[in-house]
Write a structure and sequence with these properties.
Six copies of one chain form a homohexamer.
Chain A lengths: L1 H22 L8 H23 L5 H32 L2 H6 L3 H17 L3 H21 L4 E5 L7 E5 L2
Antiparallel strand pairs in A: 1-2
Chain lengths: 166, 166, 166, 166, 166, 166
């Protein structure tokens, strides 16, 4: 019964989007905001590690700084998820999924990795988040017929980020 | 290469979640907030239709009321999407997707329908949104081993909503 | 002089609401969102107690987890207050208060208890919050002529929650 | 049974607050933010009236301006309600209510008037909101032993606002 | 080339504002919200110092209280910056800057001090923030032809705040 | 007296930042989010013009679409302002202002243009906003020793945007 609903909805959507591709100009979507957010998550983890390494007294200054790093990490992990959800939910249509069948699983991975970087201080999870969003960005730009390159982001920790070639 | 990433990430996640099911108690997820939000979208469309039907002069009172209906519609369509994204992205794990392979497509439909109810005044799209979220709720409760029923929501427009049997 | 204002305002409102009951269909109010939020506050306190009990090193992982529990507790205590304020301030009218004269005091208790659960880690205050909101829900559904029941919520800590019988 | 809960909660709270008055310094509460917000609601209504009076073509410029006035009106009516809710729910304690028994009713009036100014373009309702919040401010400052005066606010529409004498 | 843009923009703006001063009534701007926010930052630092001084066990209660003080400090430091940015960016026009050439530098100081009070627990920085915003308030009221006085704020820590004489 | 405060604050800040440049790694700032936001403002104005040009009946569908364009315009104009304020207020320090004395005036122009694009439907103001933020981006990247180029943004209306050469 669920399958019926989906195929009914699918048909409904397909028709809409066939029209959509003719009549309505595309919106402004850019995965760079999600990519910056994911890089920021790694950065916050590095600052947390540095802070802990300094050791010393764990008074209110330490707490003030640590709680700010945690809050910024939370905010950017969530932002990365939200931005990808918008592109996936608003821009990606069934024809894109047909061409790139990995898209749903990749979007889901990004959600799970985003949550993991909130719940833990696992740097590898944050690097995986950056990479998964890079992959998403590559597909996104490919759907628009724009080639991409990888370059080091111009801020610490200088991770590789996917950019469109403009 | 993307497939490799996903399968690598998958493996990574699987292990994590095997542990997760042992060590960490489940969170509090409840699709009812998304369901109320979707019902509210239909309600706003009905109020917009009523307002337009009254006709008469379209002065600032009319605009004040209409713009509030539109804004509430926007807000609740977005809330429905956000709440489903949270359950899909934070609670749903690969084993759930294996058991209910329609989950990714259904979550994606909800995003598209949510956006359509924002972009248009199409009542059928809003009804489809309510129904798609009902379906999602049925699967969600099934994953928790809780049976569900359908009952009329205790507010206009008295649509059928899926509830857990408690 | 204040009493004069109130009685003047009262009269003003009464007339409005006599009309309101004829002309405008009721909105969609549901205390369940406040109830879920209050239950979440108890849940966070339980997770905080578990975390502290584990003892061990209080490094950045501990802080990351604890600060997330605190933030979610804050957010949901505030959400519980906000949702009740909306029903109390937007749905409840003088005739309801005449019939249920305890409503103002109950709403005020909910505000105070909500704040107490933010300011402290007192589990009893959080249980009192759940119960006070359950009472509010019972009155609310009674004003709509809908009977209620109590059932264990389908998530930890499985507290009793008031539900409408649909 | 509800009365029992309230009196039980009351007792619980009283003890807490007897302690609270000894141990914890008072927070920073100031009704001026609610007062400015309420005055802004009147201001927006005046600008809406001016705009409509200009007549002329109702194209996108007109809509852009009108929808901004409506949105600012919404935002400030809601802000006025939220600020009063905070003072009423966080600062006002049962002993204050004993001394000023009109407080609950007055807070409820402010919520209703705030909602009315969102739902309509009724200038009198907005003036009533300003006045009800002025009354609330007078009581608030009296609980702190600070006398008040009334003066014209230094911005249009130059309504009388209650200020503490400092 | 940048200078050319600015002078081009300047000319463009000047003309607009010459018209603006004739045609559009002034908005409702009041630096008091920024001033209250800055005072709150000092207050939070004092409460953090008190809490730390109590010493004792640093369990979840301590963390709950400390993290709330830090969060409120963050929020109000940011609010102070945002409110000043609004007055500086929306109300202050080139003719004001000509008359008070220190305005840009003062606004920039407020941004930097606001950030410093977020990043550190330096009480002097918070006092400097209060004072810089007081200065901004003096200029603001002077541009409106309203004289000001200084009085102790009616809440701890009873700092001197600039008020308009009404 | 104000000048004294500023020079006192200045000295205070200078010392801090001399230290800051040794001890604390730079944050992640990127003007691209402001640039995307400004381009979105132009896009919304174009969509508003297209919608109006279609003419026809101005019922609830028209209002739904128009009010969404206006709201997105509002949101992105404000976002552009907020993002520039963050870079200007948090990253830009007195030594940068000494080297680029136009920075304060440019930041102020961006605030005024951002407000103008909210208040009006003037496309030229939106183009000026894009250009002013492009200028700001050029200076920003220059302070980091990174060269820039101009390229057409990969979405309508394909305006020239400043990008770092990576």
């Amino acid at each position: 019964m669920i399958h019926q609903l989906i195929s009914k909805l699918d048909k409904h959507q397909r028709i809409e989007h066939a029209q959509a591709h003719c009549d309505i100009p595309c919106g402004i979507y850019d995965p760079i905001t999600a990519q910056i957010a994911a890089v920021t998550v790694v950065r916050m983890l590095d600052l947390m590690t540095d802070l802990e390494a300094k050791g010393g007294e764990k008074g209110k200054d330490y707490q003030n700084t640590l709680s700010r790093y945690i809050a910024v990490k939370e905010e950017h992990a969530e932002k990365a998820k939200a931005e990808i959800r918008i592109i996936w939910g608003d821009y990606i249509k069934p024809p894109h999924v047909e061409k790139f069948p990995e898209l749903h699983g990749l979007a889901h991975q990004i959600m799970m990795l985003g949550s993991k970087t909130r719940q833990t201080t696992d740097r590898q999870a944050a690097l995986d988040l950056v990479e998964a969003i890079n992959k998403f960005a590559e597909i996104f730009w490919e759907t628009k017929g724009i080639t991409t390159k990888r370059a080091k982001a111009p801020y610490a920790p200088a991770l590789e980020v996917v950019y469109p070639v403009l």
